Amino acid sequence: MAYPGYPPSGGYPAFPGYPPTGQESVYPPAGQYPYPAVPGGYPPPGGGTYPAAPPSAGYPGTAGYPAPGSYPAPGGYPGAPQAGGMPPYAGAPAGPGFGVPPAGPGFGGYPQPPAQSYAGGGPAQIPVGYSGGQAPSPMPGLPAAMVQGTQGTIQAAPNFDAGRDAEVLRKAMKGFGTDEQAIINVVANRSNDQRQKIKAAFKTMYGKDLIKDLKSELSGNVEELILALFMPSTYYDAWSLRHAMKGPGTQERVLIEILCTRTNQEIREIVNCYKSEFGRDIEQDIRADTSGHFERLLISMCQGNRDENQTVDYQKAQEDAQRLYQAGEGKLGTDESCFNMVLATRSFPQLKATVEAYSRIANRDLLSSIDREFSGNVERGLKTILQCALNRPAFFAERLYYSMKGAGTDDSTLIRIIVTRSEIDLVQIKQMFTQMYQKTLATMIASDTSGDYRRLLLAIVGQ
Fold it and tell me: 175 burial class (0-12, 13-18, 19+ CB within 10 angstroms)?
């Protein structure tokens, strides 16, 4: 079904022509949009909450998987071998055995999340957006001590009054000139769900479309940023994917960034939204715009069928690691389908354990093996999946850094990540950014942008 007032099946024109001239951009009133109230929705309840790992060692410590040498006696973790005790597989180089961390920080230099205390150290951060401020119950089988909260820089405003905010925005755009700061103060301090209510209240109170009025008052990057903030989260992801494949050329990194990092539920909602809003089948568009192993990886991602059981099967991790070694480093040529199968189906905590086991078998980390065995977009896609398994905030911090590094700025990437992570884990992304690049995200944004665009970005980031 189509959502009232969204663009026609022909698709959405590129910014700043959104929406088409003369076409009302009528977003559905509050309560009629069928997507979850939690913007973005990731990480899922019990999912995305991966055990933290101390930065000094590449493997999880007390807050994550069992420390080396600390596996319980048989009967504790089913199938979990003792550190150093895994019998060698044929063709596997000798090593200290599964469970013993490799030398050096992290996997192939990829940073690990900082250690966080739980029991006795205060409650974990409650994911933003859950009604009543209650965190969801952990997935069955996930110890409470392993639940790691995430935090966005934007949270739902207390004592929210959609009518009052609509009035503020109307006054900011009425008459000669525009009070951009008043607009920034509202949009940077309201959740996506609250922004949808403001749009509905604005039309009810004034008989005018808020998005159309904003477009008439703004331009350039600040316009794109504000329009992105006012799109429902699932719709923004679907719009970004359509925009990445529309017209000549394909923005493969956008396809990777969205399809390889979202949860099953988000993927399914994006696929449905893509069909209903643009009248197109996303798999057909992917097949038309990509090819080979990269195409197959993206089609796998579109199914939204990744295992999301948070319990780690250490024996399966060892078997998968051996399978990947034999499909790549352990043979002449590469069995790409094996990599696709494992990385597209295993849960993120399971993949993290597989990375650990692989280091013991191959004497190198899995990320560097993918570097050696693959190239181009399929390499980037596979590495994105593993990076999200190891440290999702670090992946987005890296993307933000390279959107601003060097001459010029990739504003679309900067806007997309800041907006889509603002209510999810932008606090953790900021922390990882500082750890990885010895400068704050706000400092880099301030030096790379200007004017109202800079002020709005910094307000969202929390500076």
Answer: exposed
